[in-house]
Structure formats: C-alpha cells, structure tokens
Specification:
The protein is an alpha/beta fold and 151 residues long. It has 5 helices and 5 strands, in the order E-H-E-H-E-H-E-H-H-E.
Length: 151
C-alpha cells in the first residue's frame, strides 16, 4: 500500500469537515505524514457597478484574519485528536480548482475531504466541490460523508 506522506484536508468549517479531519489525523499518524488543512475563500462574483467594491481593503483584511483564526482553531483540534504535524493554507478562488492546483503544486499524496450529501436537485443547482476534486485531482481522493442529523 502506498505511504501517504503529504495529506491535504480541505475544510469549510462545517460539520461535514469533521469526519475528514478525523480520518486524515489517523492516516497522518499511521504514515508519519504531514497533514495540511486548506480553506479556500471563494470571492463571490457580483456584478457591481464600476467603482464599487464588495469589501473595503480593511474589511477584506479582517475577513482573511478571521478565516486564518478559524484555520488555526481547526489545526489545534487536529493536534488534540493526535495529529503530529499539521500545517494550514488559506487560498482564494474557485474551491475545486484551488484544491486541485494546490495538490499538484505541493506533491500531495492524498486529499481527504467531507461531502455535504446534498439531494439531487441541490446538487444540480449548486454543484459539488468534492465531485469536481475527485474528477480532476492529481492524486487519490478519499471522501467521507458526515453522519445524517435528524431534521
């Protein structure tokens, strides 16, 4: 079996990320590998009149700092679960594309990610980051569905 020395875990800070983090912690311990938590900020492409911006520079800076803080809290959780080496990366762009590109640039051996498990209609309307990553990634992808919650 292949040794997974460089494992990437895309996180969106939702409950669906938890099973992926737990699995990646186990794999990174088992193979003494690096685990990198990646969050991709997807700037919404609003059609704004010329001269208008979605965020002021200071608001954008505050947003990036808040996302970095969430990544750090997630890193601490991974360490508490037993991960030996955990890194973080905050990227910007279309999530599936950024995850695929990061994996290719960084020599990633495995991507471990959660799925939202949306129904067919929501999937058709919203798409699936996990599905796109599975189809385009330069390495194996392990997807984990979060346990169903009572609605």
């Amino acid at each position: 079996m292949k040794s997974f020395q460089n494992i990437v875990v895309p996180v969106d800070f939702s409950v669906q990320s938890a099973p992926a983090i737990e699995a990646a912690v186990d794999l990174s311990r088992r193979y003494d590998g690096l685990m990198t938590l990646v969050h991709v900020y997807d700037p919404l492409a609003y059609a704004l009149p010329e001269g208008y911006v979605l965020f002021t520079p200071s608001q954008f800076e505050q947003l990036m700092a808040a996302l970095q803080q969430q990544l750090e809290e997630t890193r601490k959780t991974a360490v508490e679960l037993g991960a030996l080496r955990v890194d973080t990366r905050l990227l910007q762009g279309f999530p599936a594309e950024e995850i695929k590109d990061y994996a290719a640039r960084s020599g990633v051996d495995l991507i471990v990610m959660g799925t939202h498990g949306r129904g067919m209609l929501k999937h058709l309307l919203l798409g699936s980051v996990a599905e796109r990553v599975v189809r385009t990634a330069p390495c194996p992808v392990l997807t984990l569905k979060a346990p169903q919650t009572i609605k």
